[in-house]
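Q: Convert this sequence to structure tokens.
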Amino acid sequence: MDAVSISGHRMPPGGTMDILFSFDTTGSMSYILDEVKGRLSDMIQRLQSDIPGIRLGVIAHGDYCDEQEFYLEKHIEFTQNVVDLCNFVGDIDGTGGGDEDECYELILRKAHQEFTWAPVSNKVLVMIGDANPHPPDYKLNVDNIDWREELAVIAKMGIKIYAVQALNNDGAVEFYNSMAEVTGGHYLRLENFSNICDFIMAICYRERDDGLFLNYEAEVAARQGTSGFHKDLNNMFATLRREDSKQSNISSTSKPDQVPPVSAKPIGRRGSYSSDSGAASSGCSSAEPSGTVHRYGSFSSISSASSPSPHIPAVVTPLSVTPASSFSNTKPATGNSHRPNSPKQRGIYGRTSNKKRNTIPREKVPETKFKLRNLKWSSWKLAYSPEKPDDSRNWRKMRLLNGYKRKSLFSSSKRQKMYEVSVQTHPRGKLHVMYQTVMSSNLDSLNWCRRLFGGSYMRYRIHQRQIKRVIQQSCRVFVRRADFKKIPTITYSYAWSRSITGKQTPERTVVKNNKTLSGMDYTLY
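A:
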């Protein structure tokens, strides 16, 4: 294969390669960076071994409204220091995000202004997001940044953008398309976050050498085995290897070629829960909606979209979809076992007996291991604050306490939704999930807390006591919600959702950063 048949412009032998990764950390997008954390050290060391001269930079960002409660952006300059990169990424937490659009226009500006790109290098920006940028007249965009102007500067500097659009926001396609088209880069779609590490490795190898890229594709194919590629990986590899087409829809049903075993650890994780299909998938789901992947630039042609190069292992056999119950830690009901009919009876939020289920404390589960992370979660929304927020008209002072409660939490919805409540011990700190419930009630009025913490009057009062105790310790309380089509059979133990009888029984003890979030003596007042 010709040396320029895939990437066109290669860095000179022995030259440098600068790759900047931009991660959106708002809402559920923060899980993408969580996927990378556990593999980052191995990934960097392998890339440095295979690509001498590679320098990596990372920028993580929330949105303008996150600057006070979390952070607006954090970044680390291009470096080859593995420890510095791992420490930086390891310390990044998720942010809230306040509206649908995110501050991508600011990140594009920072990418060309605050990073020292080598004069003679292969320059790549991997932009990972799921929404649109803010327009120049957005009230918090005080510098009136226009993403199109920033994109023109990036293109003039010779920086190629790999625009990775997560999830299925069709309204944002134009933005990601434009970034790829203007800079001669690539537009990729990512639906399963567990594939992000393979995306990163493949992009780096593709920018360096055809052989490295094709060998890595063969390695991933061997790792997937007879199950074949997940759709994300299938389309990504097809797009990065094909040069004539702006659209990649591979439909081959042949199995991957046999490849010698490789020593690398599997990077992608299996068994994520899909809210679209309502089922679990062992790496790939035939129920996922079809999508398109685009590529831009000048390349040599390939005659057929469905005929991969003979140098590349053939792709993908559709996988069967396993039922959602495969995530349960318990055996399926048999014989005359009673099948619960309501979400509460099924114990999805820890109200069933621990003798019958192997429950996992939710606050101990990292986001990368959370089985419901691929639901379409909203951003975390600040619900209770120990100090008076800036938008004070939307808040009400709590009775007998120096704390504030949001007047309205979420807009009304008739659909049943799953809610999670978390506690933040210090500004910009990690969110510790403590409570979950499923309901269809509206949380758009002042008494939203009565609906969120439903049940008996005693249960409600105990929850209110819990809220006040964490506020007294200068903690913040956040809430998020997600739509779902099927009640999952996954069982977690939420510290604030333990079964509460008429007795004054403390809940499960949870202490984080020397602050007691649960387990105190809750006498009624």
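The chain has two domains: 16-258+289-295, 327-518.
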